Amino acid sequence: MSIIEINGITKDYGNRKGIFNLLFAVEKGEVFGYLGPNGAGKTTTIRHLLGFLTPDTGSAKILGMDCRKDSAEIMKHLGYLPAEIAFFDGMKGMDFLKFMGEMRGLANTSYRDALIEKFQLDTKGTIRKMSKGMKQKLGIICAFMHDPQVLILDEPTSGLDPLMQNIFAGLILEEKAKGKTILMSSHSFEEIEKTCDRIGIIRAGELVTTEDIHVLKTKRRKSYLITFDSPATASAFAKTDSFDNITLDGASAKVDVLGSVTRLMEALSGFTVIDFDTQKNSLEEVFMQYYGSTITEENATKQGGVR
Ligand SMILES: Nc1ncnc2c1ncn2[C@@H]1O[C@H](COP(=O)(O)OP(=O)(O)OP(=O)(O)O)[C@@H](O)[C@H]1O
């Protein structure tokens, strides 16, 4: 039995908005990254899993239970971080965590306290006065503190600074090692790449693909920005003809590499390199790398009125 199942869900909001015949499953111990641009349908999918929405067709299950009918039972085993956190604004952070803990019958608060420590959150102040990042940390602690078997996290790192994003990635890996099943949505391939086993890409309400992250990494083209000691060295490197796609700019060269970076490292060994940087690709670029013109053609067809 899969832990999370989305069985052919359609929720049509009209105007081509919503989700359409979605079908995927997340297995025990798996971290599943759910990626897509703004408005693709990630939150709508997650709201079905939480039992907040009734699908037009299809169904969702968690731990074999129906997300709509058995949501009270499911909640006992689930940690949820919403995309937009609405807390009781006037409450102090710690009072909120205590309140949520009591609702869930949390007897042992040691994990909660360890999470507060890990995220360095000052829980003494009122939630109203907390920054976006602090509220996000509070939401994360609340989702994990009762040690649930299943976690559903809607854009968990939004508002977190890079240091906290790394701490969050570490937490996900620890939870994965405990055998937790995690579905997390994101816009960022880079973020998902650090933690997930598999990703699903949704676009315009339809699942474009689900793929093993290791397979994707080998298919992925990355850009590297290399700064040499002089423009002459940069052009000498470009003339080695080792790579198809080199763009020169003074002493710098941007090189696109597919898969392993070993070949680039070897090619650079005879040159003086001052700086070496990876350029992050946007999700859109990653889409284009994997699916090339297919996506644009599909979109053009849809915009022309055919689904
Ligand atoms: N209740 C609703 N009524 C009508 N349209 C809706 C409703 N809820 C969502 N939508 C539309 O459905 C589409 C999918 O929205 P959803 O919030 O699931 O996207 P998302 O992938 O989570 O986006 P983001 O990354 O911006 O959070 C959007 O076009 C949105 O405007």
TrEMBL record:
Gene3D superfamilies: P-loop containing nucleotide triphosphate hydrolases. Keywords: ATP-binding, Nucleotide-binding, Transport. Residues 4-229 form the ABC transporter domain. InterPro entries: AAA+_ATPase, ABC_transporter-like_ATP-bd, ABC_transporter-like_CS, ABC_transporter_ATP-binding, P-loop_NTPase. The keyword Cytoplasm does not apply. Signal peptide: none annotated. CDD domains: ABC_DR_subfamily_A. The keyword ATP-binding applies. One of its GO terms (molecular function) is ATP binding. PANTHER family: ABC TRANSPORTER ATP-BINDING PROTEIN, ABC TRANSPORTER ATP-BINDING PROTEIN NATA. Belongs to the ABC transporter superfamily. This is ABC-2 type transport system ATP-binding protein. It comes from Anaerocolumna aminovalerica.
